[in-house]
Amino acid sequence: MSEHSTYTPGNGLEKWLDERLPIIRFSKEHLMDFPTPKNLNYWWTFGAILVMCLAIQIVTGVILAMHYTPHVSMAFDSVEHIRRDINGGRMIQSFHAVGASMFFAAVYIHIFRGMYFGSYKAPREILWILGVLIFLLMMATAFMGYVLPWGQMSGWAATVITNIFAAIPVIGTPLLELLRGGFSVGNPTLNRFFSLHYLLPFIIAAIVVLHIWALHVPGNNNPVGVDVKDTKRDTLPFHPYYTMKDAFGMVLFLIPFAWFAFFAPDILGHPDNYIEFNSQVTPAHIVPEWYFLPFYAILRAIDFNILFIDSKLGGVIFFGGSILILFFLPWLDTSKVRSGNFRPMFKWFYWLFVVNFVALTYLGAAPAEGIYVLLAKICTAYYFIHFLVILPLLGRIETPRPLPTSISESVLGKAH
Amino acid sequence: MATQAHHSTSRRDFIFVATGSVAAVGAAATVWPLINQMNPDASTLAMASIEFDISAIPEGQSVTIMWRGLPVFVRHRTQAEIDEAKAVPLADLKDPETDEQRTKPGHEQWLIMIANCTHLGCVPVGDSGDFDGWFCPCHGSHYDSAGRIRKGPAPKNLVLPPYEFLSDTLVQIG
């Protein structure tokens, strides 16, 4: 879909540069002239919002690392030092902490957008797989960042999550000690988490480049899911049409972001994280940040043995599987129609899946007792049934509504 | 090429494979120290054994002590708790172990266990749960008065550290 650029170097310097490093030509092709379907709605703006989120996290993170001390006896105090003593530290720290939540809010919208409009379908499978990989890396990065303030939730999150590896038969315990750098979560753990928390965002940035590359070969999907037929009639240049639309979306997104950061910087976190980590006492309820709750609910839901697999390993398998199954989504959905708009049955099951996901979020924060345990099992089962039974079957039994013949027709009506 | 110079090709193949093998072994040998640096270091290993005086713990009480950075429960059990633990049929247990296997002969009143729940490593709360033992509120695992898993997601009994009684009042853990 990318067309040969119409760029002609304007002056001597540009001409000289174009023959050596055609970076201006590249920018013109991919950031300005790039032909983009003209019917993209605001759900598509979250791609740009996510780039902004990553930039905010990297910039504020680099600054925080200038003041943070990755040592068990000083980490907790150094975060308080940032919040109380550093000029503007209170703001920068809350931009980073709130930023993580906003980043995940945006990425969930971005993923669910892709799931509704079939953005994972051919020829965009690799684009989708790279996206899931970015999501995985985001989860690892957020988890390790959460450990750094060394509060009660931090230390116990590290204990619980590293313990997952102990479920692996035979090599579990030695692997756990290798990951922690000791018999328990301690200073070596904190040090390496800090190092990796600083490294991973740059790896994410690199994979984002691949993600955008994989987007720019087939071009954007769009709300009707019909391929671009006529570049002239179906598309608009990215700049200024989508740069301006995305900028407006960013401004709107920054409003709740600013509200959290300025008025309620701690509301998304758990108060127990303002108690310094104590390896001898567990908080009554260990809950992760809200964006991990659905997967945490799945981890907890398996409290029974499955054949020779014990409950702990079983929980870990389902927990891992709930994320890894996303890699296979392009092949699990058998429908030829991309957009959910033209799939009457899929639409219902899609929203049921969304409701189920929200329910898992709620159950992840609920105590592991009574009715919550049963509900978590039902929701976990439905999560997998959606991917493994419903999606493969729907494509075979559903009759989709007729598709518009072109993007332009869907926007302007048949007369054109 | 294969038909024209068969000899030199097979000789080249051998050199190819041999070189590749040496490179692979070399790469593995280089990577190992880069991974091994993550294992527990000498200062961590040096703290691996402790001695602990149990004489100050009255019957029916527990203390939590630190060993290798892990919490360890030392419980002075009452006769009622011991009898209760011994009365449980092995068939009722998810991870069958007798009370004798969980304590040292002649010291049945002392129960010494690593305090991390075998599910995901939280520290269970003492004197609670449905079985007169420990309860982990995080994920809902109940342990009995011998620290054996009875209900909930934890797969194993609370782990016993290696320990021995140096005298009636002194225990060496590790």
UniProtKB/TrEMBL annotation, chain A:
Heme b b566 binds at residues 110, 211. Its cofactor is heme b; heme. A ubiquinone binds at residue 216. Gene3D superfamilies: Cytochrome Bc1 Complex, Chain C. Belongs to the cytochrome b family. This is Cytochrome b. Keywords: Electron transport, Heme, Iron, Membrane, Metal-binding, Respiratory chain, Transmembrane, Transmembrane helix, Transport. One of its GO terms (biological process) is respiratory electron transport chain. Residues 13-224 form the Cytochrome b/b6 N-terminal region profile domain. It is found in: Membrane. It comes from Devosia ginsengisoli. It is a multi-pass membrane protein. InterPro entries: Cyt_b/b6_C, Cyt_b/b6_C_sf, Cyt_b/b6_N, Cytb/b6-like_sf, Cytochrome_b, Cytochrome_b_C_euk/bac, Cytochrome_b_N_euk/bac, Di-haem_cyt_TM. Residues 228-405 form the Cytochrome b/b6 C-terminal region profile domain. Heme b b562 binds at residues 96, 197. The main subunits of complex b-c1 are: cytochrome b, cytochrome c1 and the Rieske protein. Component of the ubiquinol-cytochrome c reductase complex (complex III or cytochrome b-c1 complex), which is a respiratory chain that generates an electrochemical potential coupled to ATP synthesis. One of its GO terms (molecular function) is quinol-cytochrome-c reductase activity. One of its GO terms (cellular component) is respiratory chain complex III. Binds 2 heme groups non-covalently.
UniProtKB/TrEMBL annotation, chain B:
It is a single-pass membrane protein. Binds 1 [2Fe-2S] cluster per subunit. Its cofactor is [2Fe-2S] cluster. Residues 85-172 form the Rieske domain. One of its GO terms (molecular function) is 2 iron, 2 sulfur cluster binding. The keyword Magnesium does not apply. The chain crosses the membrane at residues 14-35. CDD domains: Rieske_cytochrome_bc1 (cd03470). PANTHER family: CYTOCHROME B-C1 COMPLEX SUBUNIT RIESKE, MITOCHONDRIAL. Component of the ubiquinol-cytochrome c reductase complex (complex III or cytochrome b-c1 complex), which is a respiratory chain that generates an electrochemical potential coupled to ATP synthesis. The main subunits of complex b-c1 are: cytochrome b, cytochrome c1 and the Rieske protein. This is Ubiquinol-cytochrome c reductase iron-sulfur subunit. The lineage of its organism: Bacteria, Pseudomonadati, Pseudomonadota, Alphaproteobacteria, Hyphomicrobiales.
